[in-house]
Amino acid sequence: MTPLFRPRTAALFLGDLIFFIFSLWLSLLLRDMAMPSQQTFMAHIVPFSVLFIAWIVVFFVAGLYESRSIILARRALSATLLVAQTINIVIAALFFFFIPIFGIAPKTVLVIYLIVSFIFILLWRAILFPALGLQRKENALVIGSGTEVDELAAALVDARNAPARVAVVVDPAGGALATRVADVVAELHPRFIIANFNDAHVAAAFPEMYRYLASGIIFFDFAQVYEDVFGRVPLSLIDSAWLARNVSRSAHVLYDPLKRAIDIVCGFILGVISLIFYPFIILAIKLDDGGPIFISQERVGKSGRLFRIRKFRSMSGNDSGVYGASGSTKLVVTPVGRILRTSRLDELPQLWDVVTGRLSFIGPRPELPSLVEIYEKEIPFYMVRHLIKPGLSGSAQLYYHGDPHHAADIASTKMKLSYDLFYLKHRSLTLDLSIGIKTIRRLLVRSNA
Questions:
Q1: Please, which residues bridge with residue 298 across strands?
Q2: pLDDT of 135 higher than 70
Q3: Tens of pLDDT along 370-386?
Q4: Domains in the chain, ordered, with CATH?
């Protein structure tokens, strides 16, 4: 995260902590219908202080401190908060059950706290936080050109909570860049300059521009701000040098085995639990059209190796990804299949692929070989996404909703690739947990992430 957003993140953190404490006090008041005594409050605040730390971590991995959440003010804030606080209450219940050393069993308080804390945290983030004045927009000068520059400028102009308003966009290739920037600075007095410092024109002009640092102007790299705002990589900047700097297997020597261990343990537990649903799903499919229960398809996995996945059948057949001259499937989604897809119950058999290591919980979704063959020819560096193991869920599945689904589409696949490259660059256990929580939220409330 760039420094542009850190003061606002710190303010959110402190506000969350204050309202955690206030919600506990109010929950005790509502439970007893009387002002809680100092002794009662202290008996609860000590163990709850431990929980507050865990709850802040849940907020963090749920993405509630991400720049995208702050800037774009997605309408899913209430849904994210509700899921995060529900997880927090479950953590608290387990905490007091397994660690009963504090002498309290606040069952009623936890139920009240879930409601109270949700209301006040939502009030804080949606109304009080914007009223602090940290949302005041200041002028920004963007040095760049192209679709992605226009996209970032539009987002910062339209977003209610953005800290910067793009006052002007300067094309670096227009000649006399330093002089043109000086004219804009003199006229508009921008607080920020956002530029692609890998651009040869910007690099050549920067020796004349760095003096603006003394006047308080802050410089930001365009690619970093773009990633902060959108959670994806600007594809126009992807080249061999970018890959050399940002994609490395050796940098994840601890992360990879830990992730694999989590996949095995969680995949096995969830796989066993999922067996409960199998009879009901099988019966529903048979009653629907009497066709096969499972389908099996080849997909492209890590290092380009082919493997087969099994899913509960959700369409009228299995074309195995061979779409013919039309480029799209002629199959249709069945009524039961629509329910299975919406709930993602059709993918339950893939939990065993996670256990065996063909899939991971989090990663780029595996694509059909026939489509990969097309995309590899049409999209530069497409095969980079195969450097890591594919997953059941990922950034593209959460944030991009233009997936062509059983058809070849170059434009939408480029967009998906920008999310996959962001994950490839930033992958970590924290990011995996964040994607996992958002996936659960999306399944529960059927909202966009």
A1: 308
A2: no
A3: 889 999 999 999 999 99
A4: 3-131 (no CATH), 138-230 (3.40.50.11060), 250-445 (no CATH)
Helix (H, G, I), strand (E, B) or coil at 22: helix
Structure tokens at 225: 């701000």
CA distance 156 to 142: 11
Q: Does the pLDDT value for residue 1 go beyond 70?
A: no
Nearest CA-CA partner of 206 in 159, 143, 254, 161: 143
Question: What is the amino acid identity at position 64?
Answer: L
Whole-model pTM?
A: 0.75
Three-point CA angle 247, 365, 402, nearest 5°: 105
The structure tokens listed for 268 are 């096995």
- Average pLDDT value for the chain: 83
Structural contact between residues 233 and 227, judged by C-beta atoms closer than 8 angstroms: yes
Question: Letter for the amino acid at 30?
Answer: L
Name every residue whose Cβ is closer than 8 Å to that of residue 247 and which is 6 or more positions away in sequence: 384, 387, 424, 425
Q: Taking residues 16-41, what's their average pLDDT?
A: 90
CB 239 within 8 A of CB 376: no
| φ and ψ of 214, to 5 deg | -65, -25
| Contact in structure between 25 and 41 (CB atoms under 8 Å) | yes
Residues with Cβ within 8 Å of residue 334, at least 6 apart in sequence: 285, 288, 289, 313, 314, 315, 316
Cα–Cα dist 397/449, whole Å: 9
For the segment 306-363, what is each residue's pLDDT rounded down to a tens digit?
Answer: 999 999 998 887 766 665 555 566 778 889 989 998 888 999 999 999 999 999 999 9
94-114 burial, b for 16+ CB within 10 Å, e for fewer? ebbeeeeeeeeebeebbebbb
pLDDT of 3 reads 47
Token couple for 60:
């963090």
Residue given tokens 């200041």 in the structure block: 138
Structure-token pair, residue 25: 């006090």
Express each pLDDT in 67-85 by its tens digit. 665 554 545 567 777 778 8
CB 449 within 8 Å of CB 76:
yes
Count Cβ atoms below 10 Å from residue 433 Cβ, excluding itself: 17
